[in-house]
Amino acid sequence: MRIAVLGTGGVGHALASRLVETGHEVRMGSRSAGNEKAVAWADAAGDAASEGSFRDAAAFGEVVVNATGGLVSVEALTAAGADHLAGKVLVDVANPLDFSHGFPPTVVQPEGRSLAESIQAAFPEARVVKALNTMNADVMVHPRSLSGSHAVLIAGDDSEAKSVVAVLLRGFGWTAEEVLDVGELHASRGLELYLPLWLNLMASLGSPAFNIAVVR
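RESULT FIELD:
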């Protein structure tokens, strides 16, 4: 598939690189074409990798991954263009964390609405799926780096879009049983609100190399 990864931070780089490794064509998007980090990534990642602006990448992708900072995600997706998001699966991995008042951060959910819901409201023709926001980037793309079975939680209103995301996740190494559909997009509120706890767990464990499992 052709996949746009919007965002040049650690999460964007990890996802874009793993998607190339698993056989996809990937264009990394940033605020403007020629971003130093995006160019360096594309040069290192091989023939299936390229870079451009948010708009360039979104136009290229059959699937769009939002790996931008959660507080600026709607702005970044606006730059990408609603016309380039319409009808496409939009995987939101971002968390709207505000560290301006110190630690732990505040999860910004205006009127109780998650970032994923805000993205869906701003781009109603996109098919938004929340996924991968509850773990470290290395665990996202290399789930077998942890021992035992653990869970990746996804939420969205479009069942077909969630199936597309599940296929991408299995390409990373997640098993079908580990991809846990927690329901419609409003379930993303809880996925985002988990992040302050995740940060405290990371501090307690002394490492980001962990995840949660659902035991039944």
